[in-house]
Write the structure tokens for this entry.
Amino acid sequence: DQQVKQNSPSLSVQEGRISILNCDYTNSMFDYFLWYKKYPAEGPTFLISISSIKDKNEDGRFTVFLNKSAKHLSLHIVPSQPGDSAVYFCAALHTGANSKLTFGKGITLSVRP
Amino acid sequence: DAMVIQNPRYQVTQFGKPVTLSCSQTLNHNVMYWYQQKSSQAPKLLFHYYDKDFNNEADTPDNFQSRRPNTSFCFLDIRSPGLGDAAMYLCATSRTGFEKLFFGSGTQLSVL
């Protein structure tokens, strides 16, 4: 039972345009969400997070939007750069006791020069 | 730089031959995790240590064991690797919980 879903396995975007990566979740207990970025032959690195008390969090070119009623979040990258080409994992957490981080399968983003 | 280091980057073992993967950290984090990631799948948590407190996931096979002899080191032992255990194994750390994990580069395990 996949509780965090990244339904699009890949996305290709022109350099300078916006990249929108989507993520859906099914567990209404999740209250904290993170995005990780992974280059080939490297481990994932933390990118940005958002708490369920917010609907938007911004860090430079990266913005995460959360729609709790739709159980949906998205990562916007503006403007996209070739160095952003990587696999992006959405992850969710219920910040209660004995909770663990649940990852999606990831989206491969390719930014074309 | 403070970091999470995994050795080796690539490990080849034979079917049924025990193998140990290692992880060290210089972040002085309390929590260490082992994840298994197969191609095009989500990373799957195998177990984690909060200090010396071991937490095993219910669906982690008994074939997988872990040791944390001190704060800095953590080991993943696969007692009798099967072909289905071929995967990327990721070690991660965090200060107190799952809010922000720091990952190593992973060990890609092949089973022949």
Residues 77 and 90 of chain B are 13 Å apart (CA to CA). Chain B touches chain A through 22 residues (CB under 8 Å).
